[in-house]
Amino acid sequence: MGNHIITAVVSMCSSRILSRLRLAVSARNTTKRPFKDTLREALMAVEIVGQNLRNRTLLETVRSFTMRAREVEKLLDSWSQYQVDTRLVGVVEGIYQLQQVVGLADLIHIIPNKDMDPSLRQSLLDIVNKIARYWEVARFLYRTAKRFPLARVMRAVPVRLPKESFSIPVLNEYAPDLRAKIAETAPRGSQQKLLKEICAILKISQQDAIYEYTSQVMRTLNTAKIHAEIQLIAYYELQNPRILQRVICSSKDACFLCNLCLQVYQKTYTPRSHGRLYPGWRLPLLPQLAELEQRLCNALEEHWQETCGSLLSTRRGPIYPDPNESTLFTLPISRTTTRASVISGPSGRVAVSPGSTQASMDTGTGEPHTEKTNTPSNTPTPSHHCAKSLEMELDRCTLTRSSREYGFLAPGESSGTYKAGSSPPLQIQIEHATGSNNLRYYLEWLSNDEATEVRGKTSTPKVIDTEHVTLCEQNSLYLIAKDTVLKVGWTSETKVAAFSRR
Fold it and tell me: Its domain of life (predicted)?
C-alpha cells in the first residue's frame, strides 16, 4: 500500500482516531476508559480462558491475539512518548493486524462476565474494527486508484452554505399549540379525546405533555442543527449540477429525519439509517428547498397518522433501544484478496476486471484477510457468509513441503491466497492485473535441505521494498520467512512481473 495514502488518511483523521482510542477528550467532553486499559484487561482475561481451552483453533486464536495485542500496547506506548503522525500510523496498522486474527470476535465473546464486563468486550471489538477501517480505507483508495485512472483525479470539495441557511426563524408571536397540532389530523369532534387517550397510553398528564411539546418546539426553532446529509442536499440544490451525486452519507448512519428527507428528495441514496429521531433537527432556510420542505411536511403528517393509529391499536408506547449510530459500512472485498464465489479450479483463480498495467504479487505473514463490519455477532450479513466461505476456500490453497503448485493467470486475474509454514504462515497471492500476455507461475515450499542450500548461498540478506520493485529478465525468486523458504517462478512472453506487498 502507498505509505503516503495511509499517512494522509491518519493525519487527516488523527483527532477522531485519538478520540476513538480514548487518548483525547471527545466532542462531548466526556472521559472514557482508555483503549489500552481495556486491551490489557482483555489480555488477562484471554490468558485465563486459554488455560481451559482444548479447541486447537481457539488456542491458535489465543496465541495470535496475545502476540498482536502486546504489539499494539508497545505501539501505543511509543506514540505516547513521541506524539507524531508516523507513530499513530503504526498504531493503526497494529490494530488492523489485531483485527485480522481469525476468530477474534468468537474469542472475546467466550470470555466470562466475571473476567471482563460484557460492555467492555463489545467496546473492545468496536474500537478495533473502527480503527482498523482507517487502514482498510487507505488500502481501498490505493487499489481503486491503481485500477481506475479516473480515481486518481478525485478531489474533495468543501461544502459551505450561505450564512442565511443557518438563520434562526423569525417567530414573531408564534406559540406552539399541541391541541391545534392534533386537531389538524384528528377527526372533527375527537381532538380532545385523542389527546387524552395518547397521554393515558404514554402515562403522562395532558398538562405535562403540552408543556414538553411547547418547550421542545421552542428549543428546536432556536438551537436545532442542520445535519451533514441535509447540508449536502442544500449544496446540490444551490449548485444545480448537471450530474447529481448518487450517494449521500456522513461518518454516521442517517437519523430518522435525514433518511425520510432523502426518501422524499428522491434524487440520491443513503446506505443506512439508525432510525433515531432527533428533535433538534432542521432544514436550511433556503428558497430552493421550499418544495422539499412541503413534501417532507406531508410525509411527516402521514407518518404521524400511522404512528398514532399503531399507538391506539396496541395501547402501548414503542420501546426502542439506543442504536449504534456509528457503524461500519461493508467495503467491497478486494478482487485480489478474493471472492469465494468466483474462485475456481485447482489453482484457485479469481477473476477480476482489467484495470492496471502490471502483474503484482501480494505477500504477507498474517492470517487470511476478510473484511469485517461492525454488526451484531448474532446477525449474519452477506459479507460474514462470504468471509466464512472464503476461509474454507483458502484452506485448499495450503502448500505442502517439497511440492509445487502450478497456476495460470490471464490478464486481469488473481490467484487465490497460498499459505506455507505456520506460526504465522507465509501468505502469498499473485495478481496479473492487465497486459497482453498470459502468466504461468508455480510456487514451491522448499524442503529443509533445499532451504539450507538457499540460505547458504545468501551470505548477506538483501532487503527489498517489495511495494515498488519490478523484476525484469528473471523468472524466479525466493521468499524467506523464519523457517519457511518459498520459491516462486513465472513465465510470460515479456518476462516482466511487478510485485507489491500490502
Answer: Eukaryota
Cell numbers at 346, concatenated: 485447482
The one-letter amino acid at 262 = L
The C-alpha torsion from 235 through 241 and 245 to 248, rounded to 10°, is 10
* C-alpha count within 13 angstroms, C-beta hemisphere, residue 187: 3
Q: Please check whether residue 256 is in contact with residue 276, taking contact to mean a CB–CB distance below 8 angstroms.
A: yes
Pair type for strands 359-364 and 418-420: unpaired
Cis peptide before 118 (omega within 30 of 0): no
CA distance linking residue 98 with residue 129, whole number of Å: 9
pLDDT of residue 18: 93
Query: How high is the pLDDT of residue 388?
Result: 42
pLDDT digits (tens, 9 = 90+) for 18-61: 999 988 766 565 668 899 999 999 999 999 999 988 888 889 99
Closest among 153, 133, 144, 187 to 352, alpha carbons compared: 144
Helices (DSSP H) in 148-205: which residue ranges?
178-183, 191-202
- Cβ(99)–Cβ(69) below 8 Å: no
Q: Distance (Å, rounded) from C-alpha 368 to C-alpha 372?
A: 12
C-alpha cell at 150: 479516473
Confidence at residue 351, expressed as pLDDT on a 0 to 100 scale: 35
Give residue 126's pLDDT band: very low, low, confident or very high (50, 70, 90): very high
pLDDT at res. 29: 53
- If DSSP codes are grouped into helix, strand and coil, which group holds residue 248? coil
- Residue by residue, DSSP assigns 63-123 as HHHHHHHHHHHHHHHHHHHS--HHHHHHHHHHHHHHHTSTTHHHHHHTS-TTTS-HHHHHH
**C-alpha cell belonging to residue 463:** 532487503
Using one digit for the tens of pLDDT, what is the confidence trace for 385-421?
A: 443 443 444 344 778 887 788 887 877 677 777 888 7
